[in-house]
Amino acid sequence: MTNPELFVGIDVSQARLDVALHPSGETFHVTNDEGGFELLCTRLAALSPTLIVCEATGGMERPVVLASTLAHLPIAVVNARQVRNFARATGQLAKTDRLDALILAHFAQAVRPEVRLVRDEQIRHLEALAVRRRQIVTMLTAERNRLGATHDQGVRIHIEHLIAHLQTLRKDLDRELLDAVQAHPATQHRFELLCSAPGIGPVVALTLLSALPELGMLSRGQVAGLVGVAPLNRDSGRMRGRRTTWGGRAEVRTALYMATTVAVRHNPTIKAHYEQLVARGKPKMVALIACLRKFVVHLNAMIRADEPWRDQPGVAMKPDESVGSIS
Question: Where is the Transposase IS116/IS110/IS902 C-terminal domain (predicted)?
Fold first, then answer.
C-alpha cells in the first residue's frame, strides 16, 4: 500500500509558527527563530509531506521558507488573497492563527501550488540590497513631498538634512549592488547583457537580476504571467469582456514600466511596435503595456540565447501578443 498524502499549512506570525496537517487536522506550533525552524524541519522531514504551504507576509515568511528548502522539504509560498478567498468558498469565516494554518493545509491539498525553488545566497543578497534601495527611494520621495508642503524654515532645514543623508545611503547601496554583481562573473555577464538593451539601465538590470532570476528559463507566456503583463480573458456566455492584466511581481513590473517609457522613444524594436499599435487605434496606455510585455519577452529570449540585444524594427506582433488593459 502507498503512504497517504500529507499536506502542511504554516501560518507565520512574528513570534511563532502555527502548523497544521491535512487531512488529520493535527496542529502544533514552534517559535519563529532558528531553534523553531530546526525543530519544525526535523518533525516534518520524518512525516515526508507531499506539500507545505505558507502565505507571503511581507518577507516575514522568508526565513522559514529558506530553512525548509535547505532541508529538502517541498514548500510553496502563496498569495494571502487567494487563501482568504478559498477560506470563504469553503465556509470558513472565522480567523485565528490555528484556523489559518488548517486552511493553508487544506489549500495545499486542493490547489497544489508550485513548489518554490530556493535562490542561491548571491541572489538573496542582491535581492536584500535591492529591496533596501527601494525603501530608501520611497523615503526620499516622501521627504521631498514634505519639503514642498512646509514653509517653516526650521522644519525645512531638518528635512533637507534627512534628504541629504538618504541620498548618501542610496549612493552607497548603488555601489554595494554593483560590487555584488561584479564579484560573480556569471552575474556580471547577465548584467551586461541586460544593459545592452536600449531602455534598460543599471537600476532596472539590477532589479531584474534580483527579483526575476528566472529570466531566460521561462517560455514567453510564463515570463509575461510572472511579471503580470499577460492579458487575461473576461468572457462569460455571449459577453466578451476586455482582456486585462493583473497580478505578478510588482517591483519588476514597475521597473520595466519605467524602462518601457524610455524604450518607446529610443529602442527601435519597441518604438516600432508602439507606433504600430497606436496607428491601429489602441489607447496609448494599452499600447505601452503591450510594449512592456514584448520587452520582457525579448529580454527573456535574449538571456536564454546568451546574446546581447538585437534591434528588430518593424517586426509584426505575434498572434499571442494581443493586448488588453491594465488594472
Answer: 192-275
